[in-house]
Amino acid sequence: MAEHVVRLGPLVYEISRLREPVLTIDPGDSVLVETEDAFSGQVRVPGDVRDRTALPLSDPVAGPIVVNGAEPGDALSVHVVDIEPLLGQCATYVLPAPHVVATLASPMPDMTRICQIDDGQIRWSEDVTIPYRPMIGLIACAPAMGAPTTVDAGDFGGNMDLREVAPGATVMLPVFVPGGYLYLGDCHAAQGAGEVSGIALEMPARSRIVVGLGKGIHMGWPRIETDTELLAVACGRPLDEAVGKAFSRLAMWLERSYGWRRWEALSLLSQVGETSVGYYWGGGVAAKIPKSYVERT
Asked: What is the pTM of this model?
């Protein structure tokens, strides 16, 4: 197994099959990937603000990484080994968007906050600490048509913001073009369900991943597997439709890979299934179930 490094480079804001690859690897290779934060490096110290006149786009990514042998109909498996902060800190604020703050009925103050990360803890304030629970907010393979921005999510993956894309998890992404054209970025030090202020604890990061290749899987949409859970992903609005789609995809996965009939699987999911919500305004939704329910002997 070879090991590679992708250093911080030009900021990229699209998931495109047309960009020049930053790296070509073989299945099974390990890659250490450095990424800038969602603010494009503009928020580093107290008093910094996001200047969209200078950098109007958000969520820059590293990539594309091309995987030898990957063809449409295959799937890339991306195992997340670890995620480290590049600067030992993270930052957040409240996104000034009407669908986030309209119902709070008061002027929004300056909420920019810089938090130090130390010994597995995030220093939110003098009185409050948050466990360091890093995740990769954006991971994708380039679609066969178009070039989604890095704020989008869909069946190609993208800005799903799912907390389970964390060390120890494996993300399966459908391949739409030869080489796969893998992108990742938007790492968070921690994030709550729904990312309801519009912003997580954003950080520039160094992520170690191992990339595998599954031939002829024909998934069509992202999956996540942890040591204990299976998760099927759907993206988009309205949220109720995305939830329903995620559960139907999970039922079909249980039928195809674990021997359950789809309607039996759906009935079981109605009793023990759970949901994970990324950014609630059109990010990812995962339907999930503990492996202990579905792994038949």
From this structure: 0.94
Tokens at 180, concatenated: 């796969």
Phi first, then psi: give them for residue 287, nearest 5 degrees.
Answer: -95, 135
Helix, strand, coil percent values for the chain (each to nearest 5): 15, 35, 50
Chain mean position to CA 286 = 11
Arithmetic mean of pLDDT over the chain: 93
Both tokens of residue 72?
């449409």
What are the C-alpha distances in Å from 48 to residues 92, 111, 179, 286? 11, 11, 39, 34
- Asked if 37 and 202 touch (Cβ cutoff 8 Å), the reply is yes
225 three-state secondary structure? strand
Query: What distance in Å separates the CA atoms of residue 161 and residue 176, rounded to the nearest whole number?
Result: 21
Asked if the peptide bond before residue 64 counts as cis, ω within 30 degrees of 0, the response is yes
Whether the CB-CB separation of 67 and 181 falls below 8 Å is answered with: no
Give mean pLDDT, residues 174-195. Answer: 97
> In this structure, what token pair is assigned to residue 295?
């792994």
Predicted local confidence at residue 197, as pLDDT? 86
Query: DSSP 3-state assignment of 167?
Result: coil
- Predicted confidence band of residue 101 (pLDDT cuts 50, 70, 90): low
Q: Is 268 exposed, middle or buried (0-12, 13-18, 19+ CB in 10 A)?
A: middle
Q: What does DSSP assign to residue 17?
A: T
Percent of the residues in the chain that have a pLDDT greater than 90, as a whole number: 80
CA distance from start to end of the chain: 32
